[in-house]
Amino acid sequence: MWHAVVALAVGFVGTVLAVPGTAHACSCVALAPQSVIEQSDAVVLGTAVEVREETNSRTYVVEVKQSYRQRVPARIEVRTPSQSAACGVELTLGQERFLVLSAPVDGPADPTHWRASLCSNLMSADDIHAYAGASLAPVGALDSANDDGPGELSAGVIAGIVVGAVGGLVVLAAAGVAVARRFR
Q: Mind telling me which residue stretches traverse the membrane in this protein (predicted)?
């Protein structure tokens, strides 16, 4: 009898310990790609170039190649939960991809800060092209026909400076000649 009680107690404790804990997983409501894009604040094609890990989230710095729905800066920060079970998006540094974005809910509106959720980023590139509209150049992006790099002057600006300087010298020379003739 004593062995039966011990066996029952061990079986009960084993059963209690063997019960799995509460599982948490991302659950996405199935929406049509067109609805997801219509509900988004922006869609971008960009490359993650940096990541910062935080307690429950991760922030990616993304260089934007093209934006859709609205123009966004050429370099943005995208915050997402750090775990896919919490609907976080995992980006690979250096890999170009589309991101469907929402404006941040905490704090003032800042055009460089966005949120991304796994549920909004499950569609194909074809769906994005079909529903996101025309692509827009990011704000602050260099004109591709005039890509001199940040901090460098374009050929047109340099030509304008040279023409202005030469014109100024011609005016000064003419004024000098006029003053010299007057005092002869």
A: 153-180
The residue among 57, 59, 41 whose CA lies nearest residue 49 is 59
Indicate if the pLDDT at residue 125 is higher than 60.
yes
- CATH assignment of 41-141? 2.40.50.120
Q: Do β-strands 113-115 and 57-68 pair in parallel, antiparallel, or remain unpaired?
A: unpaired
Q: Hey, CA dihedral for 170, 173, 179, 184, is it positive or negative?
A: negative
Domain segments of the chain as ranges: 41-141
Phi first, then psi, for residue 28 (nearest 5°) are -105, 135
**Nearest 10 degrees: Cα torsion 100, 114, 52, 87:** -50
Q: How many CB atoms lie within 10 A of CB 44?
A: 28
What DSSP letter does each residue of 6-74 carry, written as one string?
Answer: HHHHHHHHHHHHHS-------------HHHHHHH-SEEEEEEEEEEEE-SSEEEEEEEEEEEESS--BS
Amino acid, single-letter form, for residue 177? V
User: In angstroms, what CA-CA distances link 66 with 16, 47, 99?
Assistant: 54, 10, 11
Which pLDDT does position 149 carry in this prediction? 41
